[in-house]
Amino acid sequence: MADVSLYWFRDDLRLADLPGLAAAAEAGPVVPVFIRDPDLGGEWSPGGASRWWLHHSLVALQTSLADQGIDLTLRSGATAEVLAELASEVGAERVYCSRHYQPWSETLEKSVLDRLSTIDATLKRYPGTLLFEPEDVATGGGTPFKVFTPFWRACNRRPEPHYPLPPPTLTGHGKTPRSEDITDWELTPSLPNWASGWNDLWQPGQLGAQEALARFLNDHVPDYGDGRDIPSEPNTSRLSPYLRYGNISPRQVWHAAQSAKREQADAVGSIDKFLSEIGWREFCYHLLFHFPTMPDEAFNPKFSFFPWADNAERLAAWQTGQTGYPIVDAGMRELWQTGFMHNRVRMVVASFLTKHLLLNWRQGEAWFWDCLLDADLASNACGWQWVGGSGADASPYFRIFNPIAQGEKFDKTGGYTRRWVPEIAGLPDQYLHKPWEAPADVLAEAGVALGETYPSPMVDHKTAREAALEAYATLKALA
Ligand SMILES: Cc1cc2nc3c(=O)[nH]c(=O)nc-3n(C[C@H](O)[C@H](O)[C@H](O)COP(=O)(O)OP(=O)(O)OC[C@H]3O[C@@H](n4cnc5c(N)ncnc54)[C@H](O)[C@@H]3O)c2cc1C
């Protein structure tokens, strides 16, 4: 059939505001394909939790395409080969896709282009996953930004991101190509099914994304400015997994937020704060694009000499939420049970790992990679390096979060901690974040036996802080 083309879905699993898909639809019939390439990304291929999101996003995409009478073709194999085979099968001369920014993306896209050229076909790559292309934002000297505030100021001086595109009307190809069955890909866990409750918590796909955005902008955004640091309150958008898999585009978020600003004059400050967090996502991608070793190497090279500890027991206690510091344990258990952790608590647990336990930020990065539904190469690496002190525009290493004070400040009435650490829920607020200071009768009344029903703190805060500062001092001595 003349003019048929492929649309190669990647981390852009939606139909609306997808410039490449819109262009393909305009040109003629479209065969949409998603490829499971086992070699792609190496150690950064999707972790357990985000595979669950991927599975459900693909199912949702299949449903949205089926509404237009179109099948999503699923194939496994080396991306360039699969695309060339499928293009030959259906007689497509063009493959459309969204541009990606992972360290391997340029090489992959080049290999696809080269392989397609052997069958007289071509690759057409479109923007769609960021508000601003990384090379379009630069310092006055033409170099990449390394500091967020001037970066975001420069972004805001650029022309506004264009209005989101509606979902295109798609025309199918006469013959449906062979497709693999998504259940054979085993993207969801089975033995055991640790994600069994997640269907009640999340609705992956473009519909769920639009609902989450509307819920946030209609009901919660006025509280975002002051309340975004309170983990027990539903004040943040929880859009991160949707953005990670492109169930929603940042442009859709941007324009919905702009229109909320026009309708909710009192919430303008909060909405701008929210947009600046979307700006952090852009900044992380800007850094990843210009400094592709960011997920694997300390941005500040001095940190490659940091005397990290090697301690599997400590790591396991942190991973399983058994450190004896309630706010840290609450966060790690929220992560394990829901695939998500509130941003404030991510900072607290990351600081605890790198500073109180002196464990390498890369171990935390790897655990988050496996456990987070929103596990994102740019934001995860950026977050870990920011907290760990080695990143661009990082929080200084010597700024060490006190997990007791963080709990008392951001979970004052204990709603978050009591939810995730129920074995200490009976403690009064005064002792909730430091159970070891509670008198014996208070512990007994709350049913807490430290070291038995809940761990004693695995390190002493003051001693651990001093050890961290001492370790940091070894770096200061380096030129
Ligand atoms: C150690 C550490 C690891 C992190 N790993 C990830 C990760 O793998 N994936 C991820 O999406 N975010 C990561 N973050 C950033 C942040 O914690 C989450 O984006 C945020 O908690 C998601 O919740 P939300 O959607 O309710 O955020 P909101 O506050 O509603 O923000 C809206 C959107 O802005 C973006 N955003 C917000 N804060 C940040 C930030 N600090 N950096 C980059 N983007 C941000 C997200 O896309 C988010 O969905 C990490 C932060 C830390 C400290």
Structure described in brief:
The chain is mostly helical.
The computed structural class is: mainly alpha
Strand segment count: 5
Any idea of the CATH topology of the largest domain?
Answer: DNA Cyclobutane Dipyrimidine Photolyase, subunit A, domain 3
Radius of gyration: 24 Å
> How are the strands of the largest sheet arranged?
3-2-1-4-5
Low-confidence stretches: none
Largest sheet: 5 strands, parallel
Order of helices and strands: EHEHEHEHEHHHHHHHHHHHHHHHHH
Mean pLDDT, all residues: 96
Q: What is the CATH architecture descriptor of the largest domain?
A: Orthogonal Bundle
CATH homology group of the largest domain: DNA Cyclobutane Dipyrimidine Photolyase, subunit A, domain 3
Structure description:
The chain is 47% helix and 5% strand. The protein has 479 residues and is mostly helical. The protein folds into 3 domains: 5-128, HUPs (Rossmann fold), CATH 3.40.50.620; 130-162 and 206-290, Serine Threonine Protein Phosphatase 5, Tetratricopeptide repeat (Alpha Horseshoe), CATH 1.25.40; 301-476, Orthogonal Bundle (DNA Cyclobutane Dipyrimidine Photolyase, subunit A, domain 3). The protein has a 5-stranded parallel beta sheet with strand order 3-2-1-4-5, sandwiched between helices. β4, α4 (105-117) and β5 (122-126) form a beta-alpha-beta unit. It is globular and about 75 Å long. Flavin-adenine dinucleotide is lined by residues 228, 236-240, 243-244, 277-278, 280-281, 284, 343, 346-347, 350, 368, 372, 374-376, 379-380, 382-384, 387.
